[in-house]
């Protein structure tokens, strides 16, 4: 599959067309960004680690019967994916309080959320990805109710599959974000799953091993990602 025109340069990945209109190539760059692009940096090895992490997780989700855009890891920092018409909402599941929820409701960090919560955010950098309700997403035509129902069920299913994998590695999956799109009218999981888009803590020490290391200036960001990767069995070489 040949890499062709650069379609889009995102905050962490670049998206290329290929010679087949049904497929794209995602290039995982070393760029890190937080607070809606206010804090940026280049982090050695991040692109490669996230690409391998994502390939591993997409494989586990496919094994669990979840349809994903993942086709093939092409190189250490590139992946071939189905070209989706992205649905502009981010689906967030939370198992413990952290980040935006904690701030919004004045909570302490790490409260167990039973049952896990499901939230939607409108994917729009200019607006800072505001939270929105399902009925707002439907009224504004971002997705149909049937699509939202399916995305919610899939996001909870992903939570069950991945919480178990991380738990067995002594890690807590605190929260995560997924993006879905349409491929030939069916809902498919797109984008990526990596420590850039989730929170992962060591079960015993509560050490943060995800993008909060970057957001909070804790240092050893990619080292944290690599520790998680090693613990769940992602091949890094
Ligand atoms: P952002 O857009 O938030 O800066 P990235 O740097 O990760 O994020 O850019 C990747 C872009 O590619 C995102 O806008 C994402 O929605 C989009 N994308 C991910 N997977 C696919 C896919 N399979 N088909 C089309 N677009 C995709
Ligand atoms: N998240 C993400 N991209 C976004 C917003 C959130 O990947 O644009 C992830 C984030 O890493 C966390 C989860 O979604 O794992 C919930 O994020 P939260 O709403 O707490 O946002 P934050 O305040 O951390 O940006």
Q: What's a quick, concise take on this entry?
A:
The chain is an alpha+beta fold. It contains six helices and 13 strands. It is 30% helix and 36% strand.
- The third-level CATH topology of the largest domain is D-amino Acid Aminotransferase, Chain A, domain 1
Mean pLDDT: 97
Helix content: 25-40%
Give the CATH level 1 class of the largest domain.
Answer: Alpha Beta
How many strands in all?
13
Radius of gyration: 17 Å
Sheet with most strands: 6 strands, antiparallel
Query: What would you say the CATH architecture of the largest domain is?
Result: 2-Layer Sandwich
Structure keywords:
6 helices; 237 residues; 2 domains; binds uridine-5'-diphosphate; six-stranded antiparallel sheet; five-stranded antiparallel sheet; alpha+beta; D-amino Acid Aminotransferase, Chain A, domain 1; Phosphorylase Kinase, domain 1
